[in-house]
Specification:
Layout: E1 3-8, H1 13-23, E2 31-37, E3 43-49, H2 52-59, E4 68-74, E5 89-91, E6 94-100, H3 105-114, H4 125-135, H5 141-149, E7 156-162, E8 168-173, E9 178-182, E10 187-191, E11 203-207, E12 212-215, E13 223-226, E14 236-240, H6 256-276, H7 281-288, E15 295-299, H8 301-318, E16 322-326, H9 327-330, E17 342-347, H10 353-364, E18 368-373, H11 379-383, E19 386-389, H12 402-417, H13 425-446, H14 449-459, E20 464-469, H15 474-488, E21 492-496, E22 512-517, H16 523-534, E23 539-545, H17 549-554, E24 557-561, H18 570-589
Parallel strand pairs: 15-16, 15-17, 17-18, 18-19, 20-21, 20-22, 22-23, 23-24
Antiparallel strand pairs: 1-4, 1-10, 2-3, 2-4, 5-6, 6-7, 7-8, 8-12, 9-10, 9-11, 11-14, 12-13
Helix pairs in contact: 3-4, 4-5, 6-12, 6-13, 7-12, 8-12, 8-15, 13-18, 14-18, 15-18
The structure holds fructose -6-phosphate.
Length: 606
């Protein structure tokens, strides 16, 4: 979703902002823009539809020398994708970027039109800019932002610059915003994502909602924070950040997605080590003491499917009831949540608007909240009582791969921590051995890429795809279909194997593919379901036990796997095959695999 970067420093501000925006490209966007203050105190703004490269080209022959600038990558919500609707929006010598949605924009716009203002764009964002401009007739910029911010509804983050003030102001409510400084080099920055600040800032600040952030070269500290009454605020946290961290690169891989798929076996090994032998053991111990009577899991997309995997672990192993719900549904359906239950939220970014809203709902309902989250310091991480980091590292590919595996595995470790046998060394050794076996088996699958690629080449141009699986493999069927549609732009659906005959089987013909997951459990029943598809001429790609000759014979394509010893962890193993299949099908289709159309990495609006 929208990316924001603002910078103030000795020189080269536009280059720093453009570099930050480049890092945020992975989040998904459809236009970009930058505003900077030149040496005469005048704001210059350039914006362009399409890739960031278009903006860079537009700036090539321009004098961009500046000490203060703001930039934005826009993921359209209100108003079409074009240069005018792109950010920054400006009026006179005031310029602004926005991430989020102003829900009462229409009514506010009407009032401002009555005051005599006209609007250039169709966006809700411009409404706030004009509001602040109007309020500035009777108060300074900082006060005008605070006052205007109290009048808008919805979740948003804004960053402003003013030609005469030569300072940056930023504010947020339930939308991501971080600030950063490098005091030795006199840089102050603000962004929607700490990743944009890597290598430039050596301290990162996380302001709470409604805190006005003021970046100014005149202050020794470079950044100060104010509460809504204008007094200095303590409602922020900060941490030191190494400037040595290299922003992620693809290495020898053609795409980040393929790199991230290949990282999974290593990540699986190190996650287990971290929680069993490393610093993570304290967190796991604390969670073990929670003993909830029920978990309410909520999440979105891939994280939701990981939530179904986690539910299977917790219900199957701990016999603790668990509901897994789409965050966008849970938040509005007045859920029944009782004392002693726990809200569990799963998220890679920790910034997904619907998931954050569920966490807030659970706080209101008075229960403890726990996250399985990738980004330490994200809004979800800061909001929850407890967190288990999934430690997937930076995930750049928009289609989530390694985060899913790490979410599932962290859920398995959570279920272990909740178990009475948690302190039993032998039980711990057994689970660690199983995780290590999972990593080895994943390495074997990764060594079979060419075999999976060959199948992808045969099937990538068919009419539609059903991913099917039963029981613990059902969430993997759902996730497999999501991955394929996201990156290959084909119609795919995930179904419980036994459910196809209740309607969708009407779609089966010789152009439809059934990617059937056949684990050792309920194998015969799943095979019968495949027969039903085969009888209607559907193309069968089965992923099943390698020694099953019968399954191999009845399938058009067969990917044999060794399920022995993996038991409940085997869904995470099978999922790797689906990831590779989707990746290669998308590659044959020639889509933009790392940045699929219309998608955003971090969905910060509901
Ligand atoms: C799919 C995908 C999305 C995310 C979803 C939740 O590949 O990436 O479905 O899983 O938007 O995002 P997080 O995990 O950041 O809350």
């Amino acid at each position: 979703m929208c990316g924001i970067v603002g910078h103030l420093g000795p020189m080269g501000s536009v280059d720093i902002v453009l570099e930050g925006l480049k890092r945020l490209e992975y989040r998904g966007y459809d236009s970009s823009g930058v505003s900077f203050i030149n040496e005469n105190g005048i704001i210059n703004t350039f914006k362009k539809e399409g890739k960031l490269e278009n903006l860079v080209q537009l700036l090539e022959d321009k004098d961009t020398a500046s000490m203060i600038s703001i930039g934005h990558t826009r993921w359209a919500t209100h108003g079409g994708v074009n240069d005018t609707n792109s950010h920054p929006h400006s009026i006179e010598n005031l310029s602004m970027v926005h991430n989020g949605i102003i829900e009462n924009a229409d009514i506010l716009r009407e009032g401002l039109i009555k005051e005599g203002y006209t609007f250039k764009s169709e966006t809700d964002s411009e409404v706030f800019l004009i509001m602040v401009h109007s309020l500035m007739k009777s108060m300074p910029l900082g006060e005008a932002i605070l006052k205007g911010f109290s009048q808008i509804s919805g979740n948003s983050a804004f960053v402003f610059i003013h030609g005469e003030e030569k300072e940056i102001y930023a504010i947020r409510k339930s939308a991501p915003l971080v600030c950063g400084t490098h005091s030795a080099n006199s840089h102050a920055l603000v962004s929607s994502d700490a990743y944009a600040l890597v290598g430039v800032a050596d301290r990162i600040y996380f302001p709470e909602d409604n805190v006005l952030c003021h970046l100014s070269g005149k202050n020794k500290e470079l950044i100060s924070f104010y509460d809504t009454d204008g007094r200095p605020s303590k409602r922020y946290t900060s941490k030191v950040q190494s400037t040595q961290i290299d922003p992620s690169d693809k290495g020898d891989y053609e795409h980040f997605m393929l790199k991230e798929i290949n990282e999974q076996s290593g990540l699986v090994r190190s996650l287990c080590q971290y929680y069993f032998e490393g610093d993570g053991s304290t967190f796991l111990n604390d969670i073990g003491k929670l003993r909830p009577s029920k978990f309410h899991i909520s999440a979105c997309g891939t994280a939701y499917y990981a939530g179904l995997v986690v539910k299977n672990f917790i219900e199957g192993i701990n016999r603790i009831p668990c509901s897994t719900e789409l965050a966008s549904e849970f938040r509005y359906r007045n859920p029944i949540v009782n004392d002693g239950e726990v809200g569990l939220f799963i998220s890679q970014s920790g910034e997904t608007a619907d998931t954050l809203a569920c966490q807030e709902e659970c706080v209101k309902l008075g229960v403890k909240t726990l996250s399985l989250v990738n980004v330490e310091g994200s809004s979800l991480y800061r909001g929850c009582d407890h967190n288990l980091l999934i430690r997937a590292g930076m995930e750049i590919g928009v289609a989530s791969t390694k985060a899913f595996t790490q979410m599932g595995l962290t859920g398995r470790l959570l279920s272990f921590a909740l178990n009475e046998k948690y302190t039993d060394k032998e039980a711990r050794r057994e689970l660690a051995a199983k995780v290590s076996l999972l990593a080895d088996r994943m390495d074997e699958v990764l060594g079979r890429e060419s075999e999976i690629k060959a199948i992808a080449e045969e099937i990538y141009n068919k009419k539609g795809y059903f991913f099917t699986g039963r029981n613990i493999y059902f969430p993997i069927a759902l996730e497999g279909a999501l991955k394929l549609k996201e990156i290959a732009y084909v119609h795919a659906e995930g179904y419980a194997s036994g459910e196809l005959k209740h309607g969708p089987i009407a779609l089966i013909d010789e152009e439809m593919v059934n990617i059937a997951i056949v684990g050792p459990e309920l194998k015969d029943k799943t095979v019968s379901n495949i027969q039903e598809i085969k009888a209607r001429k559907g193309i069968i790609v089965s992923i099943g036990p390698e020694d099953d000759k019968n399954l191999k014979k009845m399938s058009d394509y067969f990917i044999g796997l060794n399920f022995d010893g993996l038991e409940e962890l085997s869904p995470l193993y099978v999922n790797l095959v689906n990831q590779l299949l989707s990746y290669y099908m998308a590659k044959f289709k020639g889509t933009d695999i790392d940045k699929p159309r219309n998608l955003a990495k971090s969905v910060t609006v509901e």
